[in-house]
Amino acid sequence: MSQSSQFKAMEDYFQSLLNESAPVPNQPVTAAAEMQSVPVAKPTLEKPRQAELEQLLAKVPAPKAVVSAPTAVVKPVVAKSPPSPPPVVWQNIQTEREFQALFFSVAGITFGVPLTELGGIHQLGKLNSLFGKPDWFAGVMTQRDRQLNVVDTGRWIMPDKEATTDYQYLIMLGESTWGLACHELMGTEWLNRDQIKWRDKAAKRPWLAGMVKDKMCALLHVRELLTLLKQGVNIDGV
Predict the structure, then answer these.
(1) Residue ranges of the domains in the chain?
(2) Which among 97, 100, 93 is positioned nearest to 188, based on CA atoms?
(3) Residue 223 confidence (pLDDT)
(4) Considering just the CA atoms, what is the radius of gyration of the chain in Å?
(5) What string of DSSP letters covers 28-95?
(6) Number of other CB atoms surrounding residue 217 within 10 Å
(7) Which domain of life is it from (predicted)?
(8) What is the pLDDT of residues 132-178, one digit of tens each?
(9) pLDDT number for residue 75
(10) To pair with 179 at 20 to 30 A between CA atoms, which of 18, 103, 148, 203?
(11) Residues β-bridged to residue 180
């Protein structure tokens, strides 16, 4: 081979090497590149072990939803005052158009009581005093196994008056055990309602039903009078 031919052959050889892909120089491979290039195999369990775990998981109950209990709103309890009783309306006595009344006197003052409100008349007898009673309480009189409460009527209607000892009779009020001591019985009379100046309200004298016009005397309201006596108060309410 001539020298020129040999040179030509060497040139073509090197040219062919230049035309091939140049080799990539050695470079450090990064972890990211290594992870991309190298497939990572997923860990797998052996079949018996995997089946056992699945059985255990199947026995675990599903978590229950937690429902919070509703918060009760407690309203403050307001104590209510008991309702006040309705006021007691004073009512006067009811009588027939014409009715009978008994009249009696106490220290010169005349009183009348309808016979329908009269519980009886007794001759005044021995009295037994009781401690702790008002000044106008004269004592207790025994009458047919009944203990009758005797009122010193004069002292009840006139608190400043001294006790009277010469009472003769006891005027019983209704079916109660209370009686008014009196000096003289003045008999009974028929009265017409028109002869009475009736009261329409209690005012300061709830025991007074009205005034008998021609006699200018008080007609007693027995029910109200008994209320005062049982309360232990006199004509002035004390």
Answers:
(1) 98-222
(2) 100
(3) 95
(4) 61
(5) PPPHHHHHHHSPPPPP---HHHHHHHHHHHHHSPPPPP--PPPPP--PPP-PPPPPPPPPPPP-----
(6) 18
(7) Bacteria
(8) 999 999 999 999 889 999 999 999 999 887 766 789 999 999 999 99
(9) 67
(10) 203
(11) 151, 171
